[in-house]
Write a structure and sequence with these properties.
It is a single chain. The protein is of the alpha+beta class. 67% of the residues lie in helices and 9% in strands. The protein has a 5-stranded mixed sheet with strand order 1-2-3-5-4. Helix 10 links the parallel strand 1 (283-289) and strand 2 (322-330). Helix 1 runs antiparallel to helix 2 (42-61), helix 2 runs antiparallel to helix 4 (69-89) and helix 10 runs antiparallel to helix 11 (361-371). The relative contact order is 0.06.
């Protein structure tokens, strides 16, 4: 047993009250039988019963009895001494031994409790035998059987209590673990959503604002000599701003890209090439190969964003005159190729990403393809143009499905 008694629960509190009532009832019974039976020393029996009852009643009131084994042992010794006096005066005191068993087993350490129970049973048997002026096996059966029942009940209760405490601790640990797991999942979800929004903003708003900037610069250069061209550039910049406004509203509404609403990926890519050719000094052409199959929203969004980012890089950095965009359905894969005739670059000497100058495009495109279990390859060299190929399996990993429904 622990050094302190277990905290009372509603069940144990009810059992404690039952024990109190049992002790008071048995002491009252001994006093009443002494009066009604006209037994000798009736006054002393009543006095011993009252003294035993008062000594017993002091235990629940004194806080030290539950907090200290030593205080509990002293209180039990006092109760036992009063009970012994009562037993010496009346044979009816033998019945008080039964509730004493429970007190001793509950308040004392296991070995000391069992020893106290055995000693109490021996005193009860001996006292009853003295009052009967004889001894028989039947006299020992009652106190001994009561002691055995008390030991079994108390030990069984203690085992159940320990099991209950063990389960309570397990439940608390499980609850804490679930809370930690929920917090970790929440943090992972926040980071994943932040990464997704970063890619979306880079491939839509950032590229659109860059296109608007290029168009306005072209309008500024054309304004003195060719007002008509300047007006055309301004109109295209206004249309680009409207498209970016639609993208910004999509972030708020968490819908699919406006470019893909009510159309196919091939049509969206073809319209992207047409828009790019109209707004910038480059000819972008779209090609479709293979038999089109339905794609998940995640596939369509990823391929469209990769095409937007690649064409934006071509317009801003490549100095190309033509760009070929090819969407290919290859059985269990879908591929997107963007090839331009620009001045190219060395893929091993790419500048580091910077919030002021950019440089996030290729990293974002690679992250999109890897998230869907695909690959992104880039082939380029100075003066030889650039070829970018994104290849995605038609059955993406399950972990990527949440991005399909942001």
């Amino acid at each position: 047993m622990n050094s302190a008694a277990p905290a009372l629960t509603p069940t144990t509190r009810a059992l404690a009250w039952c024990l109190h009532l049992l002790v008071i009832g048995l002491l009252s019974l001994a006093a009443v039988r002494a009066v009604t039976g006209e037994r000798p020393h009736a006054g002393w029996i009543i006095a011993a019963s009252v003294l035993c009852g008062l000594t017993y009643a002091a235990g629940p009131v004194l806080p030290g009895v539950r907090r200290s084994r030593r205080a509990a042992a002293l209180w039990l010794a006092a109760v036992g001494a009063c009970w012994t006096v009562l037993l010496a005066l009346s044979a009816d005191g033998v019945w008080v031994a039964f509730p004493l068993y429970f007190l001793q087993l509950h308040l004392l350490p296991r070995r000391a409790g069992v020893a106290a129970v055995v000693a109490t049973a021996v005193v009860a048997i001996a006292g009853f035998a003295v009052h009967q002026d004889s001894f028989s096996a039947a006299m020992a059966i009652g106190p001994a059987l009561g002691a055995a029942v008390a030991v079994a009940v108390v030990w069984g209760y203690q085992a159940l209590y320990r099991e209950s405490e063990h389960r309570r601790r397990l439940i608390e640990e499980l609850t804490a673990t679930r809370a930690d797991l929920a917090a970790a999942q929440h943090t992972a979800g926040v980071l994943a959503e932040r990464d997704r929004l970063a890619r979306e903003i880079h491939d839509t708003l950032a590229q659109g604002l860059s296109s608007i900037q290029l168009l306005l610069r072209a309008a500024e250069r054309a304004l003195p000599q060719a007002p008509q061209n300047a007006a055309r550039y301004v109109d295209q910049a206004r249309q680009a701003a409207a498209d970016n406004l639609a993208e910004a509203r999509r972030f708020v509404a968490a819908l699919t890209p406006p470019t893909l609403e009510g159309t196919t990926l091939a049509d969206a890519l073809e319209r992207l090439c047409t828009t790019t050719s109209a707004r910038h000094r480059i000819t972008a052409r779209f090609h479709l190969t293979g038999d089109p199959v339905p794609l998940t929203t995640a596939h369509e969004v990823a391929l469209l964003r990769i095409a937007q980012s690649a064409l934006a890089n071509t317009v801003r950095h490549a100095g190309a005159t033509t760009a070929e965009v090819t969407l290919s359905y290859l059985g269990d894969h879908v591929a997107l190729d963007i090839v331009d005739d620009g001045h190219g670059f060395d893929p091993t000497l790419l500048p580091a990403s910077d919030p002021e100058t950019g440089g996030f495009g290729l990293a974002v495109m690679r992250a999109r393809t890897q998230a869907l279990g695909g690959t992104l390859t880039i082939e380029s060299a100075p003066g030889r143009g650039t070829a970018l190929a994104a290849r995605l399996p038609l059955t993406p990993p399950s972990a990527t499905e949440p991005e399909a429904h942001p």
